Amino acid sequence: MDEKLAAIAASQGGVFTRQDALSAGLTPRQIRVQCASTWLVLRRGVYAERAFAEALSPEARHVLDAAAVALASRLGLVLSHRTGALAHGLPLLGELPEVPQLTREPRSSDDTSRTPGLHVATLLDTERTTVGGVPVTTLARTAVDTARSGPLRHGLVVADAVLRRLVPREELIAAALAHRSWPGGPRALKVAGFADGRAETPLESITRLVYRQQGLPDPETQVEVWRDGRFVALVDFLFRDQRTVGEADGMGKYDQPGALRAEKIREEGLRRCGLEVVRNIWDEAWHKDGQVELAQRMRDAFGYASHRPLAPGVSFRVPSLEELVRRAEQRRRAA
What we know:
By secondary structure, the chain is α+β, with helices and mostly antiparallel strands. It has three domains: 1-55, Arc Repressor Mutant, subunit A; 75-197, no CATH class; 204-334, Endonuclease, Chain A (3-Layer(aba) Sandwich), CATH 3.40.960. It contains 15 helices and 13 strands. The strands form four sheets. A five-stranded mixed beta sheet has the order 12-11-10-9-13. A three-stranded antiparallel beta sheet has the order 1-3-2. Strands 4-5-6 form a three-stranded mixed beta sheet.
C-alpha cells in the first residue's frame, strides 16, 4: 500500500475512504484495480487492505467493520456497548454482536434509531475517547452501556475488566448514576457497585456473582496465604471466617506440562494450612443446576472447616489492585 495511504489508514483503525485514496495520489482507475485485488470493500467508499483484514481475529475484525461504519457515516458515530468493549480490548461473554454497535447523538431529523446496532443517546465530550484513531465511548461509559443493555453477568465481566484498567470505582459509579433513569439503568448501577477489578478472568467474575446470587457471603478476592513467613498460594477467593478457599478453574491453566501436578501440590499446601478448597469450572458457574451444586459444595466445605482451626503460623495478605495488575503485566511480558 502507498505509504501515505497506509499512514491514513493506521490513524483510522485500519480503514480509509475513496477520498483518502485520491488525496494520497491514486487515480480513480487505480482505485478500481485495487478494489478488485488487494483492497477489501467494507462499506460503500470505505476500504481496508485485504491481507490486513483477513489476518485479524474475529474480535478485531468486528472492530474493523465498526470503524468502517463510523467512517462512512456523517452522523458522528461512536463505537459503544459491546463493540466499544471490544475496541478497548475488554473481555465479553457469549457471541460477538451480530452487527456493530454504535451510538450517535439525537437529531431532530434523519431518524435512524431503528437501524440495527445503532443507539441514539446523549454523549458528553467526557464520555468520548479514541482507540487507534477510532471514536469509542470511554471505559466507564462502555461498561455502563453494556450493563444496561444485557444480562447482569455480561455487564459484570466488562465492569470488572474496566476497574482492572485502574479506572476509579467512583468514576464507574458516577457514570452509572448519570444514566440510572435510562432503560437498564438500575441494573448498571447494581453492576457498578458490585464490580471488582481484582477479578483476573471472566470466570472469576461470574463465579463471584454466583456466590452472591446463591446467598453465600461475599469473599475476599486475590488473597495471599502464608505460613510461618513462607508464601503458600494466591487464591481467587477467601471466605476468611469460614476458612475456605474458592478457585475458579479455567481448564486452560493446566495446558502446560506439569501444571496439574503443581496445582495438586498447591492445593495440598492450602489444606495443610487448615483451609478447605472448593473449585468450579465454567459449566458450574454458567448453568443454574451447576450454580446450585456449587453453592451446596461451598456450604459443605464451610461445615467441614468449622471442625478444625487454622494451622499455626497461617496468615493472609491482600495485595493492592495496582500490585496485582503490575504482576500480571510482568507475567504477560515474560510469557
